[in-house]
Write a structure and sequence with these properties.
By secondary structure, the chain is α+β, with helices and mostly antiparallel strands. It contains three helices and seven strands, in the order αββαβββββα. It has a seven-stranded antiparallel β-sheet. The longest helix has 69 residues, at 120-188. The chain is rod-shaped and about 170 Å long.
């Protein structure tokens, strides 16, 4: 009887441990799902070059788009989704008219997480800013040319003023000399 009692206590202890561990796993799974499903990022977990888990954002997006129609943004080269595993750094890819920043995270035991963040609006915003910046630069260059031309005209005006001053000075001397001669002539002539 003693051994049956001990076995039953041991069984109850194991059942409590299993129940506690089950609750812990359920709680961790709920937290994982909350994080996994609450993001706008497309997330896939890959093992042995196969997608073993993915969030609903990933599933919904790739229902409409093929995993084979991915292009690298830098050179427009087509790649398959799993080819992304070959890249060590973040890369930008284009799928249809969307641009994604792709991050690969090495997990334990050959598992990888690949997340795709939609940066289409960011890229369009950057392109728009570059366009505006180029327009502003163009306007400023035109203004610089106008200012340079005005500066040249101002310098030419100063130079012409100096030249006219140089011409006026001898003319004034001549005018004074002629006036002096006229006065001398008037003084010499008999009235």
């Amino acid at each position: 009887k003693k051994s049956n009692n001990e076995l039953s206590q041991y069984k109850e202890k194991l059942e409590r441990m299993v129940e506690a561990k089950t609750k812990e796993i359920i709680k961790q799974n709920q937290i994982r799902n909350g994080i996994f499903e609450s993001t706008d990022e497309l997330i896939a977990v890959v093992y042995n070059n196969k997608i073993v888990d993915k969030n609903s954002a990933f599933t919904n997006f790739f229902k409409k788009h093929s995993l084979n129609k991915i292009k690298l943004l830098e050179n427009n080269k087509k790649v398959h989704f799993l080819d992304i595993l070959l890249f060590k750094n973040e890369i930008k890819i284009k799928i249809q008219n969307k641009i994604f920043l792709v991050k690969k995270i090495d997990l334990e035991n050959g598992f990888y997480t690949i997340s795709l963040l939609d940066i289409t609006l960011n890229e369009k915003f950057i392109i728009e800013l570059k366009s505006r910046l180029n327009k502003q630069i163009s306007k400023l260059r035109k203004k610089d040319i106008v200012i340079q031309n005005e500066y040249k005209l101002a310098r030419m005006g100063e130079m012409l003023q100096n030249i006219s001053h140089q011409w006026r000075q001898p003319l004034n001397v001549l005018s004074l000399t002629i006036s002096q001669l006229e006065m001398d002539i008037d003084n010499l002539s008999p009235n």
